[in-house]
Amino acid sequence: MQRRSLIGLAIGGTTLVAAGTGYLLSDRRSLLRSDIQQDQQPDVVEPDEKEILFLASLAPSGHNTQPWFVERLAPFHWIIGNDHRRWLPAVAPDQRETLLSIGAFLQSLELAAGALGYVCQWTLLATTNQDEHVMEVTLTKIRAQDSGHIEAMKVRRTMRAGFSTKELKAADIAQLIAGEPELIHYLPTNSREASFVNHQTIEANRQQSYCNAAQQELADWIRFSSDDARKQRDGLTTGSMQIEGMVGWAVRNFYGKADVLKPDFRERGIDQARKEVMASAGWLVITSRNVTVAALLEAGRRMQRLFLKVRARGIGLHPMTQILEETSTRQALPVGIGIADPVQFLLRVGYVSDYPPPVSLRRPVTWFLRQSDAPRS
Question: Which residue of 49, 245, 318, 350 pairs with 163 in a disulfide if CB–CB is 3.0 to 4.6 A?
């Protein structure tokens, strides 16, 4: 779901020339999630509603597009919607990835609601991937359940660097796939299947890097400057892509959308993907039983449940979906990994010694909340 890192950017000599007040006035540090203060606006929802929806919004999404909206029919009675303005038509024209992201949102919503003492009653509304209204939910107060999920959601993050190539321990694998061994598969780093995924991921990245529509879409979702990131509170920042130090400083101060379409930028993206896939403990593969709306939403839920388990075990996850977005690599995948069920996620996995706090930005609840004057019966 998240795209390739730009950490491999090479910076020319003239780019790095900055001194005195020029440097001090520049965009010196990535904008982090902790830098964003809660908007001081009058609450338009109940406090528990706001907290539950905020926690739900911490779910991952491709390019960090956050493709959901919530229509409030009444207190604790909502429709979860599919925001077409946040689709990725170049790399995911069928909105498969959009539904997966919304599924992750639904999983977080349910866990947050439970922790605050509510049970969710769900009604599926969508029949196609493009339907605007996806799911209706009513929350009923009961009693608080496992509040540990709240902290797990708050600290969840995608990792892109620092992966060990040591294979996952059997005990960790068992915990990660517990209850769903037919739907979550581990491909260890030295296996034939992992090698196949490595090479196909590089090939898919090459195809996307030289597809102008896909590259322009990537450019549109990169928040190059901290000012832009603060205004949008979505997309990919230097912090979320783990572009650190002087390279990150140069990107924030000297790069823009036009640079993403240049040949050297494309080649560096391919080279970075090559480095990433060769440095991990292998891959976790998440499948679904079919490709219905319900199955895609459940696959997104499954991915989020997995994400909430890994940090406690010192394991990083990096979704890399390019294989599934390019026709030739997608068609070759079932035979290459020996899995017939539809693959919905390929996640690069590995132990990490350093697990920084989450940095990807999120929109305030009021930005994706819609009030309805016509409650449903």
Answer: 350
